[in-house]
Amino acid sequence: MLGLGLSPSQVAVRRAARILAPPPLAFALNGSTNPKLKAMLARVKAGTGRGLILVKGTSLEVGCGGAITANGTSSSVASQLVNARPYRPAAVLAGLATAAGYPCFDDSMVGDNNVTPYTTLSIYDPRISFPSGVWTAAGSTTSPNSFPFAGANYLNGTGFGPLVFTPDVGANTFIVDVYNVGGAFTFSVNGAAPTSITAPGATISGNTVTAPSSSSGFTRITVVGGLGTTGLSVTPGTNALLRSITGYNSATPAIDMLVHASNGSLSSDQAAESSGNHWYNNDALAFDAPDLTLIAVGTNDCSQGVPIATFIANVQTIVNTARLSGDAAVYWTTAANPATFSTAAAQGNYRDALASWAASNNVAFWDQLTKFGDWSVIGPRTADQTVHPNRGLYADIGAYNWSCVQAMAA
Fold it and tell me: What burial class does residue 286 get, using C-beta atoms within 10 Å of its C-beta: 0-12 exposed, 13-18 middle, 19+ buried?
């Protein structure tokens, strides 16, 4: 159906105008057609199916500093993480996509995003609560600079009190991903017993699921109950290693956001693979099989002097995996303080290398540094006068990311 009473020629003119219109500043489509992203957006808008966008990145994608409205008022990471989750770029993008007719929710948790070395997880993300000492974050292979697991650290159920995850909107369905180490998990949904639980390969007894003890891969548990706002309660048994939870209302086909990012993450963390247990970041990306993967790594590589060739090779590894299930985009994030983080010249060199690689590999690319300006411009819009945006800049970053995703699907 052409719609709006337009003739075929008028439709053709409008379509051509949309395709030929200048893309957002510093965005390069690089010839990619992004068919899987287009198909996902179409089915979500039509209400015929769900979609998944996965975000890989650093503290900038975690949203560190997001609740701070003033400039440079917070020097500690702990204070920058207080209630930051609702303002991270993924949350902003989700809200704008929903307003544009594509229901989208940042209603997932993945690990601890390396928040717990600085503050409690519920301080960063009040949707998550559990008694002290019952669940702990674990999994970094070295501290503090190696975070190979999705979301940096898994949650280890070490007691018998529940973890409660309460989505922003009412939910009746929860997707729970756990590590296959034989752990047991007992569920309730919105204060009542689930109406159904499925977990291929696992053992189900009443409301309890016991994952395989193969020490390889993940088990995906789908827990369904009545619609409500209390959320999912997860009580651990022994060996309960929790990776992620996503909640949604099954009556509303929507896009789910998964944020694999972590504070301090390097490209090597996000590209990490395990040939043995298949539990690392890139293994998790393959397991999640998103329709679109947004990749925002490099700022920490630049600061720590990772060779550019190594950085690019890691990005290639991530994109190769992302393209097994969907489309991919890479982007360079906003400027960091050249006096305290890394020089402007170094940031430009890494950015230019990423842009060149993206053009050569037919991968969508955008450049927040060019879009929002160098440090002299954005310094007054940061929470810490170093690298982390404040709330207003995060809002603009999320909006720009959404405009680029739209351009990918134009």
Answer: middle
Report yes or no: 398 and 92 within 8 Å, Cβ to Cβ. Answer: yes
Percentage with pLDDT > 70 across the chain: 92
Longest Cα–Cα distance in the chain: 67
Round to whole Å and give the CA distance between 1 and 36: 22
- Which H helix or E strand runs over 258? strand 255-259
Q: How far apart are CA 389 and CA 1, in angstroms?
A: 44
Residue 143 has pLDDT above 60, yes or no: no
Cβ atoms 36, 322 nearer than 8 A: no
| pLDDT at residue 26, rounded to an integer | 87
Q: Which two tokens stand for residue 214?
A: 């193969």
Spatial neighbors of 256 by CB under 8 A, at least 6 apart, are 50, 51, 52, 53, 104, 105, 107, 108, 246, 248
Q: Which amino acid is residue 133, in one-letter code?
A: G
| Amino acid occupying residue 112 | D
Q: Are 355 and 30 in contact (CB under 8 A)?
A: no
Kindly give the pairing relationship between strand 232-236 and strand 163-165. antiparallel
H or E segment to which residue 293 belongs: strand 292-296
